[in-house]
Design a protein that fits this description.
8 helices; about 45% helix; Rossmann fold; mainly alpha; four-stranded parallel beta sheet; about 5% strand; globular
């Protein structure tokens, strides 16, 4: 199975979950706590990739300190999807085909890019994107918690990565499976 593509909100959630003091049981946003936990587990157990349009969105983050933090996370921890230049016309055509169902051209382009690389899924917490485009795509549009459940990774499976002993996250138990 290929990597799951992520949208820019998922990158935000991953960074928040990697924060040294993060714990989902004390997260004030109860709706997002399971998504932050799931995206961190996905980072440890599965493969995720960042699409070109998502990279552009991250680079356009207005808060310069947060933008640098997100860019550093992508640079160090998340591989960038390799979309061949020859695929661009097909991606543009596909994005235009999706536009009548969801008026956000960036979201449509992200879905088209994810389809072009045969991503296992597109991870997003954007309810409107998932609802409006889900029936019109060639790949699942899932929240991180849905994708985590869909993978059905058996409990006790060793993760691909673990926080180093010097990383305070290594002492946390919330992410263990």
């Amino acid at each position: 199975m290929g990597a799951a593509a992520v949208d820019s909100m998922i990158i935000d959630y991953l960074e928040q979950a990697m924060d040294l003091g993060y714990n989902p049981t004390t997260d004030l946003d109860r709706a997002l706590a399971p998504e932050r936990e799931a995206v961190f587990r996905l980072f440890l157990w599965a493969e995720m990739t960042v699409l070109p349009t998502v990279l552009s969105q991250v680079a356009a983050t207005k808060d310069s300190a947060w933008r640098r933090t997100l860019e550093k996370l992508v640079l160090i921890h998340l591989p960038e999807a390799q979309v061949p230049a020859a695929a661009m016309p097909t991606i543009e055509t596909r994005a235009q085909e999706l536009l009548p169902y969801h008026g956000d051209a960036f979201d449509c382009r992200i879905v088209a890019e994810a389809e072009s690389i045969a991503a296992a899924a597109l991870l997003s917490f954007d309810h409107r994107l998932r609802k409006r485009l889900g029936a019109h795509t060639a790949l699942p549009l899932l929240a991180p918690s849905e994708y985590w459940a869909w993978l059905a990774i058996p409990r006790g499976t060793t993760p691909r990565w673990t926080p180093a002993p010097s990383n305070p996250l290594s002492q946390q138990t919330w992410w263990h499976w």
